[in-house]
């Protein structure tokens, strides 16, 4: 069998330049590890804060699209007289009514459900 020399198993001392580089690398490792630990604790703290914070008193529960969860949205929209709705579309809190006005021209009317106001009234040319 092969004989392992005892000199190969012993750690030889590094020269001063390499020892300086090794110390700097160890210091860098400790500093970056501490920064990562503090950052991770800040993220966990923010998550715990958000999860355990109670909802403000008197504020209705709202889903991600802005619709209250405790009651349905109800309201009345006033469209122009003689406007015949052909199709509708909903995006967030806005409803698009597409149809034909009393003058026979196609129009698109956008209404905000939160405020009940008409956001846009667009006449479409080229029929």
Topology, element by element:
Elements: H1 6-9, H2 16-52, E1 84-91, E2 94-100, E3 106-112, E4 118-124
Antiparallel strand pairs: 1-2, 2-3, 3-4
Please work out how many helical segments DSSP would assign: 2
Distance between the terminal alpha carbons, to the nearest Å?
97 Å
Strand content: 15-25%
Give unreliable regions as ranges: none
> Can you count the beta strands?
4
Strand arrangement, major sheet: 1-2-3-4
User: Mean pLDDT score, rounded?
Assistant: 83
Shape: elongated
**Biggest pleated sheet:** 4 strands, antiparallel
* Rg over C-alpha atoms, rounded to the nearest angstrom: 35 Å
Structural class, by secondary structure, is alpha+beta
SSE topology string: HHEEEE
Residues in helix, % = 25-40%
Describe the protein's architecture and organization.
With 127 residues, the chain is of the alpha+beta class. It has two helices and four strands, in the order ααββββ. It has a four-stranded antiparallel β-sheet, with no helix packed on it. It starts with 5 loop residues before the first helix and ends with a strand. The model has no long low-confidence stretch (mean pLDDT 83).
